[in-house]
Amino acid sequence: MTLLQNPVNKFNIVSTKDEHPGDKRFFQCSGPFDLEHLSTVSDTKIVAARSGKSITSFTGIAPLQAATECEISFLDNKRYLPLLAETKAGIVIISPAFVEKVPDDSIALVTSRPYLAWAKIASLFYPKQKAQSGIHPTAFIDPTADIDSSVEVGPFAVIMPHVKIGKGSIIGAHAVIEQGVEIGDYCCIGSHVSLSHALLGNRVVLYPGCRIGQDGFGFAISESGFITVPQVGRVILKNDVEVGANSTIDRGSIRDTIIGEGSRLDNLVQIGHNVQMGRCCIVVSQAGISGSTQLGDFVTIAAQAGLIGHIHIGDHARIGAQCGVMSDVESKSDVIGSPAMPFREFFRNVAVLRKIAKKSYKIR
Amino acid sequence: MTLLQNPVNKFNIVSTKDEHPGDKRFFQCSGPFDLEHLSTVSDTKIVAARSGKSITSFTGIAPLQAATECEISFLDNKRYLPLLAETKAGIVIISPAFVEKVPDDSIALVTSRPYLAWAKIASLFYPKQKAQSGIHPTAFIDPTADIDSSVEVGPFAVIMPHVKIGKGSIIGAHAVIEQGVEIGDYCCIGSHVSLSHALLGNRVVLYPGCRIGQDGFGFAISESGFITVPQVGRVILKNDVEVGANSTIDRGSIRDTIIGEGSRLDNLVQIGHNVQMGRCCIVVSQAGISGSTQLGDFVTIAAQAGLIGHIHIGDHARIGAQCGVMSDVESKSDVIGSPAMPFREFFRNVAVLRKIAKKSYKIR
Amino acid sequence: MTLLQNPVNKFNIVSTKDEHPGDKRFFQCSGPFDLEHLSTVSDTKIVAARSGKSITSFTGIAPLQAATECEISFLDNKRYLPLLAETKAGIVIISPAFVEKVPDDSIALVTSRPYLAWAKIASLFYPKQKAQSGIHPTAFIDPTADIDSSVEVGPFAVIMPHVKIGKGSIIGAHAVIEQGVEIGDYCCIGSHVSLSHALLGNRVVLYPGCRIGQDGFGFAISESGFITVPQVGRVILKNDVEVGANSTIDRGSIRDTIIGEGSRLDNLVQIGHNVQMGRCCIVVSQAGISGSTQLGDFVTIAAQAGLIGHIHIGDHARIGAQCGVMSDVESKSDVIGSPAMPFREFFRNVAVLRKIAKKSYKIR
Fold first, then answer.
1. How far is A14 from chain B (nearest CA, A)?
2. How far is A322 from chain C (nearest CA, A)?
3. What percent of chain C has pLDDT over 70?
4. Residue C352 belongs to a domain
């Protein structure tokens, strides 16, 4: 098949080969920064370029394959070692194990946690967006709302009665903040967010299109159909919580749905009513947690995993991708499979079944 | 790790220990109601407090751990028996099996279906939201739309030509009702809903962000790329249908996509074109039904299950969580696993494989 | 249970028995077209009605069970052969294998690819919607935006500074196009779409509620909590890409997220940062692709499948429904299961396990 020949693209989209991050149409880059400062900020050790080359001022960040001698790159995954060999980057952030593999012309910034160092340096060049205080003339704000003067409110945002919004927060275009909602300081509410029956701490980030505070899926079965159970709890998002695009968090039925401090939810995640999640949990995209389930602190739930309701997941437990969890999970344990079982058991089952099936059938 | 020390929260979020439902910022509580009335409404039998305590007027509802002597609670799940022992609730709705476990100071309202009784009593204190007739000044309404004078239309809602909306319906902020759509009486269309090519019965509830009536995923493969197949059916949502937040229902390609009366879909559910669903089906969050599949009445599809297209699911069938259904399912059968199989077979397979694998490997 | 008796529906929803597509409230039908033209457009061979009946002008399309003698239908799936026997359709598009089964009064249009012929004929009667040039008076357009005069912009759409939009494009109600975004010619941006940090080719179609260009899920773990990694890449949607309702595509972290020409994503799909997808890939609903994974051309990913990050999927590979892919997949291979394995191996495993388990337990 010869598909879509001769495509002509009006805006001249760049090739994927040597793409450069930080397109000026979308991003504003700080800097330059000097080597000493970069090392200090990232808590890394400077190892000079073997060739003696000594550039001292750096203007930006880029991936290994695109970085120039004035830019910083990093290596965090062995899969990309071939790109390291070819890089022109002025600086490479790297773990001690691979420092010998850095090209002769590059300076190494060495640390046992290169991705953390990268986060710090990238944040130096691209600091977090700040609120541009002011209310867009098209926004609708109820006069009883209590909004700090430093808040930024985007086009067509709706802020209903008795809402409170703390200093430095940003309310995106088309966000709807329903009656009585409270939002702390330095929060960022994305475009098209629906937010009701909720109390938010500080620095909470809601991505576009997430739905927070709607009724949970609660009804009783009667002879004349389903009877809705009023959902009279709230959603509590504590400090530093982030919720991904188009994710949904139902409010509690009779207690609160709570997301603990610093927890991060990816896109298209579902959180049922009364779920209570501890601090610094991670829930990857398309995972779902059913009603009244409780998570401890530092729990990780990988993509597309599902948890039934009314169970308890201990601190530091890790739930694998696509895992189906039907019962409590102990602290620090790692489970995968549907139904969930320890990682070791799951992969043992897979190996044994493959062996037996091969023997039984002897196909080719 | 010591994360996020000394968090300060501007709005003084209450602790999770003794949370109380019905936060006045978000909910309005009716009442008080007396014991006789509560018993009548909920069709339950009064069993007096063993201590002789006799409060007769009740002001609200709460979970077992938070309820006071003027409040009503319920027990519906054995897991929470320890909370029953400690409760201060004035009334506990409970099944005959556990009535002896109700504390001495509490009145029991006894029924074989405590959750249904709970639904009725909770609805007494928190009745369904009614339309506040009127059109928000920021809404855009096409002059050809036929909207009952009792309808409530929220900020920035868009109502396109020839739309009809029946009495007592509520159209949320930022909802977009496309040309020709018909909405029955007492419907509730959530904020940010997209609704096109659809006919809705009465009392239909659409949660925020659901997408109803867009093109299905239909295209043919040709030498010059994919050719879109026009989707010229509709979406029919019959009386009392509910569709969860951010769920998607594609319109039919050449017949209609139909959701039968009283059926309830949770959040992030996907319904393909031409799906036809009977009465009172339940589809739990993140489940998906592919194009042209037909469901009978009272079918239950648990979370994250997936059904391929062009199959038939019989009345009262139950599809387990994460189930992958590739062929027809008979009435009243219960299936789980991917590919789907009877519950009994699935759990037998799991047990046998575990046993064999343990033997083969003898790991610890 | 007798549920929901005597439902009365104000708007008289038609029965499902003889539904007819193309409801005039929602669709405008072209035509009539004569037989020769239909045959030419669809590249099919005319086989006259055995009864000698000879209608030559046709007014529309319909499914087998509803089509009249002036209408065209098609058969593409053996499951529907019983409907073919009963059809009153004037024309049936059909493969050579079934041409004998067409009723005596119907003309057959014969082709080895009936669904493709159907797509072409249906598109004749229902051509693609064209932009009605003009900007809705309620839309907010930044004066620095460069919008072709032929563009249609819907109610309450938001177009931020320096956006460019090519000729014939449609921007739906409530869409938000953030700063610097470039949209090619003849694109269609659905209602409630959020679009940022993105460059779109021509004829790109975004369905309602999809989220394009938000931050990816990137953060490093430190002693004081998670540190967000700035996401400074873009999203590139090449010519003819389509993205389903409520799907989410994160922008790149340091390179671009790229969807290749002609690729089609269904509803509720998640695409992580830095994913690079080739031409004419298909991603069915609720599937997810984790960060930095690369797909070749013509890859098919079925519903609810999940791919981990940093892997490579070869051209023409097919990933089955609910598949969990944890490692590279070779070109042209078909995998299914979690973890992914060849189709043949998967179904062999299923069969062998069932046999062994049955033997072990001998239940009934």
1. 23
2. 7
3. 94
4. yes
pLDDT digits (tens, 9 = 90+) for A239-277: 999 999 999 999 999 999 999 999 999 999 999 999 999
**A213 and A313 share one domain:** yes
Q: What is the 3-state secondary structure (H, E, C) of C269-338?
A: CEECCCCEECCCCEECCCCEECCCCEECCCCEECCCCEECCCCEECCCCEECCCCEECCCECCCCEEECC
User: What are the chain B neighbours of A222 within 8 Å (beta carbons)?
Assistant: 116, 119
* Residues C59, C29 contacting (CB under 8 angstroms): yes
In a domain, A89, yes or no: yes
Helix (H, G, I), strand (E, B) or coil at A84: helix
Q: Comparing A12-26, B214-228, C58-72, C140-154, which segment has the lowest mean pLDDT?
A: A12-26
In a shared domain, residues A205 and A81: no
Q: Which among C125, C144, C171 is the end of a domain?
A: C125
Q: How far is B223 from chain A (nearest CA, A)?
A: 5
Tally C-beta pairs within 8 A across A and B.
239
> Does C176 contact A191 at a Cβ distance shorter than 8 Å?
yes
Q: How many CB pairs lie under 8 A apart between chains B and C?
A: 233
Counting as low any pLDDT under 70, the low residues of chain B are 1-18, 362-364
Mind listing the pLDDT tens digit for each residue in C303-315? 999 999 999 999 9
Range of the domain at B222: 193-344
CATH code: domain of residue A74: 3.40.1390.10
Global pTM value: 0.95
Q: Which helix (H) or strand (E) holds A107?
A: strand A107-110
Q: Which of B92, B125, B158 is the last residue of a domain?
A: B125
Residue the block writes with tokens 């991904």: A244
Please indicate, yes or no, whether residues B199 and B120 belong to a single structural domain of this protein: no
Q: Is C112 exposed, middle or buried (0-12, 13-18, 19+ CB in 10 A)?
A: exposed
In a domain, C348, yes or no: yes
Instruction: Please count the structural domains in chain B.
Output: 2
- Sort out which chain A residues have CB atoms less than 8 A from C236's CB and list them: 13, 16
Q: Work out the pLDDT band at A18, boundaries 50, 70, 90.
A: low
